[in-house]
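Morning!

This is the sequence you dropped in the shared folder:
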Amino acid sequence: MGVDTEEHPRQGTTEPARVRRRRPVVVVVLVVCAVLSLILFLLGRFLHLPGLDDVFGVDTHDRSGPAVLKSIQDMHRYEGAVGNYQVVVDLEKDARLLPDAIRGTRTLFVASGSVAAYVDFGGIGTGSVTVDEKRGTATLRLPHARLAEPAVDPERSYTVSKQRGLVDRLGDLFSDNPADERAVHILAADRIGAAAKESDLTSRAERNTTSMLQGLLHALGFEQVTVAYAS
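The structure's back. Tokens below.
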């Protein structure tokens, strides 16, 4: 009499063979999809292939809160003139002993900004204004005009090109602010400020301030108004 030696799996102890065979296939598919996605992302990021930027594009949602007033500063100055400037910044950073294709950046940036020239009225005392007894003549002694800090206008400034080495491109992938351009903004502000110092902006501000004060005091009845500037 023969004995049946076929083993039957116990219920609840082992997985069906079909499920065990399917699990490695699913893992391989997921890994392949992840690798393909990474390859497409890198191609679109580094080679700028058309169409790939739309696939991995970034949607912008403004969830900023309202602006909070931190302080108020009273102004006691008259801006007599404002100069508008434009400068092309070509900033290159090279790594020692490494070619630019490996490590290095070069940014071409067109910056538009302005510098104001003003006369400070805050330090004017009683001795700075002299009026005769008949109130027909007035003499004002004011400090020389000064230049305000240069301001770069972000709406009128733009980056023409930005070249980066392979290491810098890979670093941007893990950077919190990959498009950081503070260096070119600071350099642009310095260039604009230097151009304003070489111009006659302060002289024009003094002439315009003189015209404003003379017109104001003439309207108040003064016949002769003299405005002098001193350090």
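Headline: The first strand starts at residue 77 and ends at 94.

More detail when I'm at my desk.
O.
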